[in-house]
Amino acid sequence: MQEINVSELLVEKFKNNNLNFIFGILSSGFMELGDILYDTDIKYIGTRHEQWAGHIADVVGRLTGKPQILLLPGGPGVTNSITAITAASINHSPMFVLSDGSTSITSGKNDFQDIDGTRITDHITKRSVTVNRPDRVNEYFSMLYNLAQTPLQGPVHMEIPRDILLMKTSYDMEVKNPAILYNNYPSVETVKLVLNMIANATKPVLLLGEEINNPEGRGPLEEFIEKLRIPACSTHGNNDVLNNSSKYMLGAIGRLGSKRAMEVLRMADMVLVLGSSMNPYTFSPYYGFNYNEITNNIVQITMDPVNAGRNFTTFQNIICNPVQFIKLAIQIIDSQEFNLKSSKYPNWYESIDNMEPDIFHGTYNNKVFEILFRKIPVKSNISLDAGSMSMVMLKWQKFGIHGRLLTSGNMGEVGFSISSSIGAKLAIPDTPSYAFMGDGSFTMQMSALITAIEYDVPVKLIIFDNSAWGSEKAYQIAMYNNRFFGSNLKNPGIVKVARSLGAIGIEANDIGTLEHDIEDLNSSDKPAVLVIKMENDFPTPVRSLDAVKRVYRGLYKEHHS
Ligand SMILES: Cc1ncc(C[n+]2csc(CCOP(=O)(O)OP(=O)(O)O)c2C)c(N)n1
User: Fold this and answer.
1) Is residue 418 within 8 Å of 459, Cβ to Cβ?
2) pTM for the complete prediction?
3) For position 443, which CATH number holds?
4) Within this chain, do residues 195 and 120 fall inside the same structural domain, yes or no?
5) Whose CA is nearest to atom 4 of ligand 1?
6) The total number of structural domains that make up the chain
7) Same structural domain, 321 and 368
8) Residues 6+ apart with CB under 8 A from 281
């Protein structure tokens, strides 16, 4: 046993878990930790706001499967990061939040920055603890790190009072291996039951969700579908779960999804849901599609016992790890124990293969997207902010060829895309990383661009400039007689701002030269910003228009329709 201090111990734990990065903002409590990290190969990426560090850590965690350290000053550092930790939680992103705090003697006495961070993050993490003794840091660290990366993955939080960070503890330097984790396996009988249901269906369809949209799930999933030869669609936002060049992939359902995917789902006589909680937003109506039509023969495989069967009447819920389910199913199919050739759906896929894919043309804004869809390299990581324009990128059919779609998921957050694309570029440096956002969103998160420039992370930002919080303006156009309350924006010159921060700035005001502008962006090896002027032409607002129209007004009736 070696005597070391708690900060040294933390660095040993980082190294044992092969961590390459730490993300965050410095604080006085972590000075000793910083000084030890100074001599290691672990790269510290400091951002200008804790939320951006959280998003970067989230995305690196998603893309590597390894919990990343988010280093936060206790108090305001923790409260500033709540949105990012929540996004990681919603998206099952493994993350280890490490914050300092007031001393173990003064905490709770209204000390400086004496905010109960553990309780604040309790609801949005898998576990949140305050360490009360130096000799428990090792135990807590391992427990939390393991918890963060076991299904369902998510953030954990450890707060260490600043005096404890400097205390002496002992550590067994010989025990270095991180834990080997086991996932939840289904039984052979259960997998056979489901394969039998598929074989007996005439129109089986797969619906693929967030729990298999991870590095471990994607390979087996492709193999599984190639063997089954049945059509697949994804839940909203999981457009990249399967290589879209796979002929079996029809696209995502839900908002801005694929009409073909929705129609095929309607036709299905059996739906195998792999790794989705089937939450209500996933099934938002689009193209007037009513998802109640698919209540027959749904088999839902999920790791989430709370939401299994909660939103839909399912024929069967199976609580297990869907990745393990697929792996076992492949083994069973390969062992010839199970013969899919005698299935009842031999020509089912071919019949839908002739269905016309989605068409996308028309207005000026649609032309912009049509050009973007052609010019963005297919092997790209695509980060999207919430916003009426950026979300149209969901219609891009090339997700998942190698790159990934990165969104804040059901968080629906404005402010996610720049940090997310920095994370993607750090996690997978060979793949270009694009962030799509509106002008409102860019002006909210400009300080995240500083981090990309400071650490020379060559992300590519595409900003749709309609000088508005367009999503809200869309409602005002559709329902409030163009009475624009708070939705028009007076921006600084965005290209000028980007250039002055040190990025390459490209202004696209002319659709005739847009292709060249995108080529310039694509070939840039520095952080670069392309601002595209858009028209006030919006897709259907997110929430149902009927719901808002029906609001009763007792007063202020003059302009109310
Ligand atoms: C953090 C956060 N704040 C506010 C919102 C509400 N909101 C959703 S979309 C949107 C407008 C985004 O405007 P912009 O980024 O300019 O994109 P546009 O809709 O114009 O394409 C707003 C304000 C949100 N989802 N997240």
Assistant:
1) yes
2) 0.92
3) 3.40.50.970
4) no
5) 414
6) 3
7) no
8) 236, 254, 255, 410
